[in-house]
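Dear Dr. V.,

Thank you for agreeing to look over these. As mentioned in my earlier message, I'm a first-year student in the group and I'm still getting used to reading structure tokens, so any feedback on how I've presented them would be very welcome. I ran two proteins. I've put each sequence directly above its structure. The first is here:
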Amino acid sequence: QLLYDSPKARQEVDHHWQASGGPHIVRILDVYENMHHGKRCLLIIMECMEGGELFSRIQERGDQAFTEREAAEIMRDIGTAIQFLHSHNIAHRDVKPENLLYTSKEKDAVLKLTDFGFAKETTQNALQTPCYTPYYVAPEVLGPEKYDKSCDMWSLGVIMYILLCGFPPFYSNTGQAISPGMKRRIRLGQYGFPNPEWSEVSEDAKQLIRLLLKTDPTERLTITQFMNHPWINQSMVVPQTPLHTARVLQEDKDHWDEVKEEMTSALATMRVDYDQVKIKDLKTSNNRLLNKRRKKQAGSSSASQGCNNQ
């Protein structure tokens, strides 16, 4: 990785260097100062992560089922990385699947967290700079409140939700990376567990998501509580229920590529005032992603019935 030399770049390298060697965190092997196009730069040599991104690996499963137990094991690994960071008073602030990479293509590859561009020490100034990626941004980042390690816990909730169904709990109806409607849904904690994708998912998993997606940061689980939750610390007994995740990710592959591009480019500074926060159940009738799949499923069903009637 090449970064033009600046206080922010050196801070990123410093935070990653502190975390390097921690469990499920990409290791920095060396750092060099150099010149690039006449500008001072930092060249960061990291371990090679040949296995690709988390989403891509699940997309490529094909007919091989992705199970709830596998999702629990993945969340345990991500949680282990966050636990290490939080124990060293570092908030990552940009935990998302694109920053979760596998060491190799092998079945026993290790999942690791990378990209410390928005990380901050939580023992110094309160985290008030809203740098984030829209789909994984905590509600307090969109408002004037101070925020801390609980941002990462919110992101864990969103990642866990996607792992269990293949689509995010919050979405934009307009095609924008983060629309006013999407911001409102994040702030009010509006999401649901629609069928059929969620019909077979365990109540333990849904309960854990609810505890992670609390809009009030003080009510959200800490990383210690997360790691002690039965769905995480007893992941070997989580049911091996086949999920819809791989199919949904594959069907929406083009869309997800666009979403990833939007999330990469749409890092912005944004604050929204609001009077009160409350949780509401979300009717999924306006969810563009769900409606697209429902129409496709309905079309396939109608075609099948037509063939049967002939």
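The second protein is here, in the same arrangement:
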Amino acid sequence: MVKRQRGSAVYPQFKGIGAFPNKQKCAGYIPEHCLQICKKRKERIKFMRDLEKVCIQPKYNYCTGEERFTFIKLPKCLVEDEGFVELSMDAKLLYALFLDRVSLSIKNGWIDNQGRVFIYYSIKNICVDLNCGTQKACKLLDELEKVGALERKRQGLGRPNKLYLKKMF
């Protein structure tokens, strides 16, 4: 395709409505980037039709791939039990994140001399995962420790604390 000056028509020989009377005549004049956009649009339409075939509502945003089956388990007792009323929802969510991390610790073999599974979860990770500041992250850890859901062991030398989750239910 020929490079054009700003403000000039793409195809000066064709002007106005009906300039391309049939597809064969205009097929050679479609720019490459327009063809790519059309191809993506056709792929999207095909994807939406495939969703409709399996009775999925295409209006809603569905996760695709691995993230579709990624979830965090929140123990029901943390929500229903009266003993945890004073525990904030953020602390409950943090406990659920810790429970999720326990399965990873078991796979890694992070078990102490007493046979207890521990996790590493730095304050920086808590801040990123809960979208909060360091003061709030420390407050949430203190809250879980106060209720008896968590035990922290300091390691010192700039290393993250070992966190032991206690059974709350």
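From my reading of the second output: Helices lie at 23-26, 32-53, 76-80, 89-108, 123-130, 134-147. The first strand starts at residue 119 and ends at 120. Does that match how you would interpret it?

Kind regards,
E.
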